[in-house]
Specification:
By secondary structure, the chain is α+β, with helices and mostly antiparallel strands. Helix content is 58%, strand content 8%. It has 10 helices and 4 strands; from the N terminus they run βαβαββαααααααα. Strands 2-1-3-4 form a 4-stranded mixed beta sheet, with helices on one face. Helix 1 (14-25) runs parallel beside helix 3 and helix 1 packs across helix 6 (149-167). The chain is globular, with a radius of gyration of 18 Å.
Length: 226
């Protein structure tokens, strides 16, 4: 009998969503335990050396870092989401790291202190998305017809744009048809949809508005104009 799994999470953490997507794709039963990262409980700090989510508790053992968790789940529960060929698998790991870098770029965008910085960071995101467009095939997923760990990484990435698109038109996906197709395919997948609670968009909007950033100011202006 396999050890029980508990996913320690934060409601807005995109890295948690990766693990939740992989668990759902594999049909693995697990308990989800949300914590407040502003007030980290002592038990959490004892199992998370970096003080970050996600943490996957496997019986009395704890794994931290989303990439490690996803790789462990892929090795221990079918169906395999990584490709069989070692070279292709290594290439996919590179694009998974690219997804993490894009999340950092997105964070710099929504934290930009003024309009000039906001526009510069929007340009950074656009450049990253153009790189992705150049590597995609006919889809619908990153590796074609097969859903892979790369898709599990990018599902949470694209979710940010569902809220950004309601704030203003930043032209992120203009002229990028393969990326648009991939984004839509991921948004329609049940594992991606179920990785967050129904109130996630409202929670994300509240988080962005509270940042006191240039993006927050745009949101406030939009709200004032109804």
């Amino acid at each position: 009998m396999s050890a029980p799994l508990t996913l320690v999470s934060h409601v807005l953490c995109p890295y948690v969503q990766r693990a939740a997507i992989v668990l759902a794709e594999k049909g693995v039963a697990f308990e989800r335990r949300d914590i407040d990262l502003a007030h980290k409980p002592a038990w959490f700090l004892a199992i998370s050396p970096l003080g970050k989510t996600p943490v996957l508790q496997v019986g009395n053992r704890a794994l931290f870092e989303s990439a490690v968790i996803c790789e462990y789940l892929d090795e221990t529960h079918g169906p395999r989401l990584h490709l069989a060929d070692p070279l292709e698998r290594a290439a996919h790991r590179g694009w998974m790291e690219f997804g993490s870098a894009l999340l950092n770029t997105i964070g710099a965008f929504y934290a930009a202190p003024d309009e000039a910085a906001l526009q510069a960071r929007a340009g950074d995101i656009r450049g990253r998305l153009q790189q992705l467009e150049a590597t995609l095939g006919q889809g619908p997923y990153f590796a074609g017809e097969r859903f892979s760990l790369v898709d599990a990484v990018f599902g949470p990435v694209f979710r940010y744009f569902e809220v950004f698109d309601t704030i203003d038109d930043f032209g992120f996906f203009a002229g990028l048809p393969r990326l648009v197709r991939w984004r839509r395919a991921l948004a329609a997948r049940s594992s991606v949809q179920g990785a967050v609670a129904p109130d996630y968009p409202a929670r994300l909007r509240a988080f962005l508005l509270a940042r006191g950033s240039a993006l927050s100011a745009r949101m406030a202006v939009g709200a004032a104009h109804g």
